[in-house]
Amino acid sequence: MQIQNEKHMSVLNVPVEMPIAELEKQINAQLKGLIYEDDSYEDEGNDNLKAKVWKLSDIRVSAQDSTFLFDVPIKIWVSAGYKISPMGFTMSGYKDTEFAMRIRFISKIHVTPDWRVVSATQVDSYDWISEPSVKVAGFSIPIKSMVSRLLNKNFEKITKAIDEQVGKNIELKKYVQEAWDLARQPVLLSEEYDTWLVVVPTSVVMTPLVARNKLLYTSIGLKGYTQTVTSKNKPDATSSSKLPDLQIVDKVPENFRVGLISTITYQDAARLAKNKLMGETFTFGGDRYAVQITNIEMYGQEDMLIIKAGLKGSINGDIYLRGIPHYDPQTRMLSLKHLDYDLDTRSVIFRTASWLLQSTFSRMIEKKMVFPVGDQIEEARKKIQQTLTHYQVTKGVELNGSLTDITPDRVYLTPKHIYAIVFATGKVNLKIEGLI
After folding, report:
1. What's the Cα-to-Cα distance from 53 to each of 28, 39, 122, 373, rounded to whole Å?
2. Do 196 and 187 meet the contact criterion of CB atoms below 8 Å apart?
3. What Cα–Cα distance (Å) separates residue 194 from each residue in 186, 228, 230, 269?
4. What pTM was computed for the model?
5. 10 Å Cβ neighbour count for 124?
6. Tell me: the pLDDT tens digits for 126-135?
7. Of 322, 405, 324, which is closest to residue 362 (Cα–Cα)?
8. Segment 316-368, tens digit of pLDDT
9. Distances (CA, A) of 321 to 32, 44, 278, 410
10. Which of 117, 252, 365, 406 has its CA 20 to 30 A from that of 102?
11. 8 A C-beta contact, residue 55 and residue 70
């Protein structure tokens, strides 16, 4: 028989904080030098222009909520063909000019179910830092309007380059995969009681990316079932190693539950009961009948605790009682509910000692059958809390959390032990270097 405690849904929180300055740094490192080049006078419907666009200085990134603003200073070189006829003379050729401008792009960023970070960037506005100017024989060529048309046609190439860099530099999947793999590994909670925390992750949820105070935020939740397993050997890793599709939610739940186990052997429970009951005389029927308990043994039978009690006095021999074990979180005691004679014992004493059936003997025994196990549970809670306080799972990965409320689950009977299970609830975060 194993402890088959119910699984409880929990959420392991993975907070994400990325400085926007880091995103800005990475984009500038990747997006540099020549951004765009048009080396033909004949393309774009024979526009008679050649152009090159460079990043002039660092791109500035700012954000609010889910909207990003990219301020991109660029330098542009243009070679423009001209044909003029001053005073009846036709003049033609090519003239070069360089100028600078600042373009502002607005971008919306989201994460797809397959973990790709996608941005949709559009031009918001642009200003001339220095305007283009080409003059031939004192005549100005209208290059500014030509350049504006050129840029309007090719802004898509610049926005595409920005979107590619955003997708490359906000990488979530590899970190969440690491958290998923770590969550699947059982954690030893208590060497003394061979207790392991086993998490079976089932899904991943995430809040939309939001920018506040120069930081990019999101919260990732690994949802799964928690179990407390008693085993001398480390249990096998649970669930599939494949990271499931992402689910976007408005809020990641913060509830985490873990079972705390206390254990007592049947021999120890019987010894404690003997200390309270052996030698005590119980009288019934106006003192006409009296019995003493000579021995007590205990064992489990499915969900029932069986008590074998030896009696001497008005009745001699063994009787069997059965009750439901129960943990009371108020008294922190393991006790019995509905203690009564088993059917065979009831049949025998009905024929030979009916006065025992009519007495409150079973109720008196029930009141004595209390066992202190609260200290074990409190010790388990303290050890788990220590494990959850700045626990270095591996290099760059820290587990941190707190357990607050304690609620009883149930009592389990195995061939050798009585286990009382309670659940501690709280909040647990997994911090991964690079994500925060």
Report:
1. 15, 11, 18, 75
2. yes
3. 12, 10, 5, 20
4. 0.60
5. 13
6. 888 887 776 6
7. 322
8. 999 999 999 988 877 888 888 899 999 888 888 888 888 888 888 888 899 88
9. 83, 96, 16, 20
10. 117
11. no
